[in-house]
Amino acid sequence: MKGIVFTEFLELVEEKFGIEMVDEIITASNLESGGAYTAVGTYKFVEMINLLTALSARTQLSIDELLYIYAQHFFKVIKSSYAALLNTYSDPLELLASIEDHIHVEVRKIYPDSQLPTFKTIKRSENTLVLDYHSSRAMYNFGLGLMHETFKHFGFEHKVTFEKIKEDGTHVRFFIEKGDDHKRS
Ligand code: HEM
User: Is residue 72 in some structural domain?
Assistant: First the structure.
């Protein structure tokens, strides 16, 4: 997992819960890296699980809730650091249908060793998209948060539901509907 995912996660923890919480979860997690992350480094995914577990125990928020909150923060990072990529699109549904063949392809050019999920379009119509998420990391709640933020960014009403195809969350089906454009009403 790329360092930027760790540095931004700790940034969010500091912002929401304070610097003492950052120190506490790093100490509690027994990290191989010691918690000293650089944005371009690569670290074991288990370190993220340990940090999330330690934070979950101290905040009473589930790991899924924390991943969702984290996605809201990560989208701000995307907006400021990858604006050009984001703004190749004007339609949120078009963007979501293009993660696999464009967005994450570009991410892999920037970070060749990134560990990305696979998204497969199952069904597409003008205002709907059925998208399958596959990843051994089961970070579908992170994906869900990013989907909501994508619609908000472009100013569209929307509805996203999902169904776990595999109980452990490594294969999840998203049902995405695009609604009205706020800017036009
Ligand atoms: C992971 C970048 C859009 C879903 C990641 C990672 C980066 C990244 C850097 C971490 C990779 C690693 O740790 O090795 C971006 C950029 C985007 C974008 C720059 C837009 C310009 C999206 C969108 C979704 C999404 C719209 C919505 C579904 C995910 C998920 C992961 C991920 C779920 C976690 C890894 C996993 O589940 O296996 N992305 N992403 N990304 N991205 Fe994106």
Answer: no
Dist. CA 146–CA 32, nearest whole Å: 29
Q: Say if residue 11 is in the same domain as residue 92.
A: no
Quote ipTM for the complex.
Answer: 0.95
Does 77 sit in the ligand 1 pocket, CB within 6 Å? no
The 10s digit of each residue's pLDDT in 23-74 is: 999 999 999 999 999 988 999 999 999 999 999 999 999 999 999 999 999 9
Distance of CA 35 from the midpoint of ligand 1 (Å): 22
Going by CA atoms, what residue is nearest to atom 27 of ligand 1?
Answer: 143
176 lines ligand 1 (CB under 6 A): no
Condensed to tens digits (0 to 9), the pLDDT of residues 139-174 reads: 999 999 999 999 999 999 999 999 999 999 999 999
Distance in Å, CA 170 to ligand 1 centroid: 15
Ligand 1 atom closest to the Cα of residue 85 is 21
Given a contact cutoff of 8 angstroms between Cβ atoms, the answer to whether 130 and 174 are in contact is: yes
Total count of domains within the chain:
2
Q: What one-letter code names the amino acid at 66? A: L
State whether 171 and 89 are in the same domain. yes
Residue type, 154: F
In sequence order, what are the beta bridge partners of 97? Answer: none
In the predicted structure, residue 93 carries a pLDDT above the cut 90:
yes
